[in-house]
User: What shape does this take?
Amino acid sequence: MKAEIISIGTELLVGSILNTNAKFLSETLAENAIDVYRQSTVGDNIDRIVAAFREAAARSDLLITSGGLGPTMDDVTFEALSKFISKPLALHRPTYRAIVSRLKRHGFQMTKLITKQCYVPQSVKVFQNDHGTAPGVYCETFYQDRKVQVMVLPGPPREMEPLFTNQALPYFKKKIGLSGAKFLIRSVKLTDVTEVQVAQKVPDLLRLKPPATVGIYAKPDEVELKIMVKDNSKKQACRRADRIEKTIRTRFREKVATIDNETLSSVIGQILRKNKETLALAESCTGGLLSYLVTQTPGSSDYYLGGVVSYHDRIKILELGIPSDQIKRHGAVSRVVAKKMAVNIKSKFRADYGIGITGIAGPSGGRAKKPVGLVFVGVASKQKVFCKKMRFFGNRKEIQSHAAHRALDLLRLELLK
Amino acid sequence: MKAEIISIGTELLVGSILNTNAKFLSETLAENAIDVYRQSTVGDNIDRIVAAFREAAARSDLLITSGGLGPTMDDVTFEALSKFISKPLALHRPTYRAIVSRLKRHGFQMTKLITKQCYVPQSVKVFQNDHGTAPGVYCETFYQDRKVQVMVLPGPPREMEPLFTNQALPYFKKKIGLSGAKFLIRSVKLTDVTEVQVAQKVPDLLRLKPPATVGIYAKPDEVELKIMVKDNSKKQACRRADRIEKTIRTRFREKVATIDNETLSSVIGQILRKNKETLALAESCTGGLLSYLVTQTPGSSDYYLGGVVSYHDRIKILELGIPSDQIKRHGAVSRVVAKKMAVNIKSKFRADYGIGITGIAGPSGGRAKKPVGLVFVGVASKQKVFCKKMRFFGNRKEIQSHAAHRALDLLRLELLK
Assistant: This one.
């Protein structure tokens, strides 16, 4: 089973938006053991879309498009599909009725432009879009005497993702009678190591051949080892991945930070919740990012009390109780201040752990002795307080992100002790 | 001049990473009046890469690839290029020497794998990679009697972006003698309106034909009108875009929030800095995101004092002075509390403006009367305080993001008064 993804939209070709749909579809197909052979992006133009359909149909069995189903005149994907499968467009009444009643519930009326979205090629399978107006469709056709499946999905990720996952993909798998063959992907993320250091410690794993392989990917704040196992039995695949994961854990121990969808924030949350402990944060250069990362984990209110963003030195003095003479003597970006921030936010908020971050995110404000990218992270626990001096590279946003992630990782390591 | 982008890498086809390179290249080409006709993604496989070269060469004049130049055996882009242009690979000595001396400076030695990266097809133009080892190359070839330009770039964005912008693109433009034709793109973003409302107010602009067109795009927190003007004179193009922008401003007034790379955060920053006024924030459900967005603007320390993330009710009471009986009576998510948060953070931090946000980000914690997505934003200025009740849809992250952006927009509108 070879699949191709065709992303439709001139905004992609002029680089206005990132193609997150191709990533999402590819990832979901990979997990379902469907190989993606090619991804293409074409503009909103009937002939070009039809040409893309034909090229892909000559190579692959399943074509999945996203985009070009909107209400405006430049959205022509259904017209292109109609041409490719030689079926005229017709008003799909169930879709029309569903949209009218949904609009009514929200106090809106049907418009001519939205009605246009209800015209789909005759005799295709239609999937209602629960998060927007344009429906998704599925059909089978013949091209050069080969049977080809076509799935047409809306462009906005909020609409496309649930429609594909909950409706189109299950329908397709049932229709095609796809075997239970599963492609299990497990992502093991390591922190505080370089790609080369990781590669040198697992040369045997990187040389594994299908059905079980391990890939290595360097990411901004971590190195990912991706375990990929293909097997007819999910249980077997899991067992095999477990064994490989165990090998990685034995070699890297606490440097294994997260598995799959875990984040540093969710891992910290699990430990804090289990220990019934609480956390408070004092941030300067990260400006609230650290706090935001912690609160991205649902249920973080169980252990996260809150924080202070002390952007101005006055707030460091008044709210965090940093003596002004210490700021004068050591500078706001210093080991002394980072430690004091961590200790004082901990006691002020009556938390079990406190973190303080101060640094120079840039682009200006750097000096020879204290360059852009210099960051101090203080961590205070019940027994002690310590501080790490770090130096990051990149733009302002990257430095803020690196600093926040490293701070979370320092806390994680402390919690594991 | 028609260009195509070929992204190379199996990690893209299995959805491990987002294709930011295609966006970056497309955007940069658009700004240089080079049309991107197609984007494709293929795996790390010589024959498939050559096939992609051939298909693209049959349609377009310039092919740009990124990826597949790494040190490991699965990186085969140079081999594919060698096959496509029928020139054998040969060691490129200047690249080799440059890498050896750079590695030496960092205390590393040349390895066999890195040496592999120095083999490029004979007689191509080579661009040194200042941020990595694999060089970029440019060459011209004939395919089906048509002259085709090929540019091969490394995959990591940190390496590819400067190499393309500073070396490959200028070299290409000079070589080809590209006319000064400029494609001016101006993005006008509107807040607090729907795509349909915008479309209904500018049907004339949406019908414009080249050389000046206007496109409409719905984004999560705004609607974008993109003005695109092609002209030989940059000044003329600017003047034309100015006229269209003026029309949009006349019709939407203060709903025009940002132009081009401006963000709500940078627009607010400009006004606050001009007025020499300051801002303080009190957040609950956004968990620090609002503060982080404000501090993403370089120089925000000029007007942003800081904030309190009062995630636990105890912090709302102790740090923000919300009377506990008010929380009991109205709930932490209420108009009363949002207003009080705004007023109290303003006076506590001695700022000119204060914002308070409280809401239910979900996924749990919602009730019939106070559902997930309910958010109150309070804004306090010198003269007054007001509160907006809002309801957002989506997952936790989306609700946090919507709330933070709407809060920034409310402040923007208040600052404009």
